[in-house]
Design goal:
Number of strands: 0
CATH class of the domain at 21-137 and 154-176: Mainly Alpha
CATH architecture of the domain at 21-137 and 154-176: Alpha Horseshoe
Largest sheet: none
Radius of gyration: 29 Å
CATH topology of the domain at 21-137 and 154-176: Serine Threonine Protein Phosphatase 5, Tetratricopeptide repeat
Distance between the termini: 27 Å
Strand content: under 5%
Number of helices: 18
Structural class: mainly alpha
Length: about 400
Amino acid sequence: MNRIVILIAGVLAVAASAGAQIGKSVSVAAGTPEDRALSEIYAAPDGPEKIALLDKFMADYGKGDMALLGDQLYAQTYLAMKNYPKVYEYGEKALALDPDNLSTAVSMVHAADEQGDAKKVFDAGEKVSAILARYKASPAPEGTSADMWAGQKQAMLANAQADIGYAEYAMVNAALKTTQPAARAALLERFLADFPDSSYATMVREQTAVAYQAAQNTPKMMAAAQNVLAADPNNISMLLLLSDNWSDKGEQLDKAADYAKKALALLPKAAKPENVTDEQWQQQVALQKGIALSSLGEVYVNQNQNAPAVDSFKQASPLLKSNTVTYARNLYRLGFTLAKMQRTAEARTVLTEAVSINSPYRAQAQETLDKIGSAAGRKSGKKPPSQD
């Protein structure tokens, strides 16, 4: 069965990463040999010179907290040098010494993101998620009241928000770039398990439904879409996805019509997302309106209401031109319905255009055109032309 992916507007945004302090804080007394060595390291440019200074620092002082600090600096320096295997190597060493070191886990996310390695992005991102879960659940230290500790944690999490937001962004971006739909859906579901309260959560839930649609896993697509609608009954993308699916399959026609009509009513009042241009938004709204009208037309066809179906398909057609597959499908639907109504000349014009478009509906349009030709030949008593 041919599938139409419902387009969802939205652009991922990411804040610049800033150092967070969740995890062990290492202090170095001013004026000590360690302090002088670290000052030299911090002043050196990222590259072999800094690595040589770190090697000397670790040889001289690399025990206990100084080993942790050294491993963190190695990971950060190798990240700047784009030596990603070394980032993972020293990141793991730092996390072995301090499993709750957020900045180190985020450095590993950066490395994986820059590499474009979705598996490593999620492995490192899930380290971030686990660190945050442990930190949020951590009891107040001895001598600190529960209220004071809650306030300190809230402030620390706010301070870490840029790093947390970056990790979330990298995971979602890696999932969305995964071309295989079932694998993309699985990654999106992993993200929701790790960061259920993320600002990306609604968009990720929508994209999970779309990924399952593309994977032709209808039960999971339906479940994902209905979960979104349970939380947001006015989610236009999910209303359209379900209406489109039901109308295309000739199922739940009343609900399909209701959802399409509801989407049409909501679209004029929909708010443009941030980071989407006016032109992109206008195209998005037009396309979604076209999908709703085409779905409504298909409902009418299934109900043998051909005249209103033709009207809906004709209204949808100019709105769908920005998307080849939806436009070609709508042409085929219109041509097929016109042929049923024996409006042969109109049907032939529409179907000929559908055949001219490289889409999954070309063969079906050609088959209908052939049937029109055969029927016309029988009426005239002439043999239809050879299709060789």
